[in-house]
Design a protein that fits this description.
single chain, 108 residues, mainly alpha, 5 helices, elongated
Length: 108
């Protein structure tokens, strides 16, 4: 733990996001971000596991989606460029040269 702060997990972050909206409605005169964070942290600590369960389920779903996306991304990175796409094999300058040469031929 660095600087006395603990790492906030996604369950707590989701909870704080919802709490922040409610807190700002109830306390429109409050402009201090730190006051909202302290109040949200205190509420999170006072919540029982049953109250935290919806946030845990949402966090697990988000984690699974993230891991699935990362596996697909990593697989794509290890496979390298696909050979079937001719356009991707051209460099940007070749694509622009092709476009420019067509225009020049039309003008003649």
């Amino acid at each position: 733990m660095k600087g006395g702060r603990s790492k906030t997990d996604s369950r707590e972050a989701d909870s704080k996001g919802e709490f922040r909206k409610q807190f700002n409605k109830e306390n429109p005169e409050n402009k201090a971000v730190s006051a909202v964070g302290k109040a949200a942290g205190a509420k999170w600590k006072s919540m029982c596991d049953a109250d935290k369960a919806p946030y845990a389920a949402k966090a697990e779903k988000q984690k699974a989606e993230y891991e699935k996306s990362m596996r697909a991304y990593n697989k794509k990175q290890t496979e390298g460029p696909t050979g079937g796409d001719e356009e991707s094999e051209k460099s940007i300058s070749e694509v622009h040269d092709d476009d420019g040469s067509d225009e020049e031929e039309d003008e003649d």
